[in-house]
Amino acid sequence: MTLRARSVLYGVAGVALLLLAAQLIGQFGLVGKTWPPLTEVVAFLLDPKNATLLGNALAATVSEAAAGGAIGIAAGIVLALLAHLVPVLAPGLDRFAALIDSVPQIALAPFLVIIIGREGTPVVVVALAVTFIVFISTNSGLTAATRQHQDLFTVLGSPRWDRLARLELPAALPKLFDGLALAAPAMILGATIGEWFGAKRGLGVLFVSAMENYRIPLLWAAAVLSVLCSLIIYGAALLAQRAVARRFA
Amino acid sequence: MTAITDEPRTSTERSIVLSGVSKSYRLQRGAQLTALQDISLDIAPGEFVALLGPSGCGKSTILRIIAGLEDPSAGTAVIGGASPHALSQAHRLGVAFQEHSLLPWLTVRDNIALPYRVAHRPVDAAHVQELIDLVGLSGFENARPKQLSGGMRQRASIARALVLSPDVLLLDEPFGALDAVTRRRMNAELGRIWAELKITTLLVTHDVDEAVLLADRVVVMTGRPGSIRHIEPIDLPLRVNPELTRAPEFHEIVDRLTSMLDTAKEG
Fold first, then answer.
1. Chain A closest CA to B247's CA: distance in Å?
2. Which residues contact B231 (CB under 8 A, 6 or more apart)?
3. Which of B166, B16, B13 is nearest to B76 (CA)?
4. What pLDDT is attached to residue B10?
5. pLDDT of res. B4
6. Which end of chain B is more exposed for a tag (fewer CB within 10 A), N or C?
7. What are the structural domains, with CATH classification, of chain B?
8. Which of B104, B118, B120 is nearest residue A153 as measured by Cβ atoms?
9. Set of chain A residues whose Cβ sits within 8 Å of the Cβ of B114
């Protein structure tokens, strides 16, 4: 068996063991009623009666994550370009970004609810987290071009704009996509936390409602959906990152 | 291949004049490191000069000053009556570095055509193809640098340096990272290419054979602080007759310059 096939097998085996353990803990009630058997959670997910509820919540959270993600990526890139082209702004932007990011999202969200309202908060929470991650990675990427390449563009008599478009931006892409892979898990999480404080729809709302009404299978179903979504987004980001690294690194 | 020599001479031949060039770096606690001391050198238009010296003698610094990548601490570098910066701004300078510096995301063809794009001129695809054939990279036009050997990447780098028919060609140990056999082959190729183009050229190298084979004059430098120890005119027509490297005259010159380098290292 090849090395690669073996490591994939180990990964699959590990996940299978975890799922088996989760099932057994639930089946024998080892930690009480709050941990149901996995089969019950799966049955809840597949039950057509729950389809609308879960479907609407999923759609709401994913669309917030997508919107917040798009805004965050755009803002992160713009701010990084600004810091790169106007160096005097760079330290200030760095510190401001770090400040925003250092406030825990769960503390920031109620504050945002007051300023922006319940409906806009999830998108803003996601956007803030993604902006920070993309800003840091893009900023780092814009200085990734080697000194030799910069010298090349100098002796070619390159105007500033050509240097940026033909050298610095392509050279930044690997790190930018590294940042996207890092930001991917933050998107669903941010949207869920943003919904916690009174949004109308979403997986976060399901969490809160399930906890308050002691609907255990619903709680777990919402959790499974969050994890699956995050994994899909992360997987897509990882594929993109590999393709970019192959071409640009 | 004949198309290149039939091309109307659009470039103006330029001389390189270094007058009293010195370069010092300030270190911590006020100490000074003098890399170059009082370098004066005239390179005539169309002349091929080799700068020969031990590692760290500042020869690459001279090349970087002529390329406009660094400014001298004292003295001037004048190229065809203008500053080095003016030459690169006018896109009339061709440089091949020791690191090939090909952009990894572009094909060979796009890498060689890059100077056109940076100069905002329409790409002359026929001329690019001519150069690809001239340096022996036919068939590899759409390859990425990752897929090429070291020798092939350097050939692409030299083709890129030549694509805008520059007035001045600077070569900074372009074959330094290659093995001996490939290096000899590349020396012969460069001699052949240069014979067609006759651009004012400065080659920086620590390889004595290479310097004597390719240059009209060899400038031997001392160690830090770098200064000119000796200038040797090469009368043997080695570029066009590389088989003359077997002649005793060639070995005599190489031995003499090598011994000068040896004592220069202690300087």
1. 39
2. B217, B218, B219, B220
3. B16
4. 42
5. 40
6. N
7. 15-92+166-262 (3.40.50.300)
8. B118
9. 156, 166
